[in-house]
Specification:
The complex is a heterodimer of chains A (about 100) and B (about 170).
Chain A lengths: L4 E2 L6 E2 L4 H7 L2 E6 L6 H12 L3 H14 L1 E7 L1 H13 L3 E6 L3
Antiparallel strand pairs in A: 1-2, 3-4, 3-5
Chain B lengths: L4 E4 L4 E7 L1 H14 L5 H7 L8 H30 L3 E2 L7 E6 L3 H18 L4 H4 L9 H24 L8
Helix pairs in contact in B: 1-3, 1-4, 2-4, 3-4, 4-6
The chains are: A alpha+beta (about 100), B alpha+beta (about 170).
């Protein structure tokens, strides 16, 4: 977080725009990467449990991971992205997060 | 015909029945396999970085999430290890084995079986080609690791189907 700026006026300081705030508010993508061991049925189950996705969507994302090597499974705020990556890691899926370019 | 099943025994217990001797032997090895979770290769797989290139986030993650994940994985392994002490010959089905355990242990079984598969994969460098192998040389440690990954995976798949409520296609 950027330090506050003294204005010289009593009781008035300017809080600078913070990079941390920007990072928290910008969209982050949660990516799941393919690995040769995890079962397709297991990955589908994890997507349903972690994100609450219906089976059809979970299977579509699982197949994208399987065929393309990775799939963007969720996009949104950084804190929530961290929460999802942590959950995916607890299920032993290879998951990363990256700041969205859009 | 092998008739491996994972099903509720009653309201509080799950029963794995029809366990062929070879799978029973592999299940008894699971606690030993899980002890390899702290080997360098297994660590990299079980505790992956959350970003591809942000060292600061990755380092913070290792400090914050790493111990929590390890506790989860160790706890699941210990639960399954204790449950496996009840593994016994099933008197009703010839030379098959069975084991029953509390229904609340199902997440631990799913976690531990998957851990064991991933650890075997990392320790023996199992890739897509090895996973697609259909012939297994008993003299090859890599081939036997791939076979164990498949057999433990079959049992894991039955747990997943049980969890999702699907009718299991549970005959090999």
């Amino acid at each position: 977080m950027a330090p506050p700026i003294e204005t010289g006026q009593p009781g008035v300081i300017i809080i600078g725009e913070t990079k941390a705030k920007d990072e928290l508010s910008s969209p982050w993508n949660v990516i799941v990467h393919n690995d040769p061991i995890n079962l397709m049925s297991y990955v589908t189950m994890v997507f349903m449990r972690v994100f609450g996705y219906p089976r059809v969507r979970a299977e579509t994302l699982m197949l994208e991971v399987h065929h393309k090597g990775r799939s963007l499974v969720w996009s949104g705020g950084r804190e929530q992205a961290e929460h999802y990556v942590r959950q995916l890691h607890s299920y032993q899926l290879l998951a990363t997060m990256e700041k969205s370019e859009t | 015909m092998i008739d491996l099943k994972v099903q509720p025994l009653d309201e509080k217990r799950i029963l794995i029945s029809g366990i062929p001797p070879v799978l029973a032997a592999m299940l008894r090895e699971v606690p030993e396999i899980l002890e390899l979770r702290d080997s360098p290769d297994a660590r990299a797989r079980l505790y992956p970085n959350p970003t591809a290139d942000n060292d600061k986030i990755n380092q913070e993650w290792r400090q914050m999430a790493g111990p929590e994940l390890r506790h989860l994985f160790v706890s699941a392994g210990e639960t399954v290890g204790r449950d496996l002490t009840a593994l016994a010959v099933d008197g009703e089905s010839g030379d098959a084995w069975r084991v029953a355990f509390p229904i609340e242990h199902v997440p631990a079984w799913i976690n531990a079986l998957n851990q064991a598969r991933l650890i075997l994969g990392e320790v023996h460098k199992i890739d897509e080609v090895e996973m697609n192998r259909t012939d297994f040389d008993p003299q090859s440690a890599k081939h036997m690791a791939a076979l164990r990954i498949h057999l433990l995976g079959y049992l894991l798949h039955l747990f997943v189907e049980l969890d999702s409520g699907d009718e299991p296609e549970n005959r090999i």
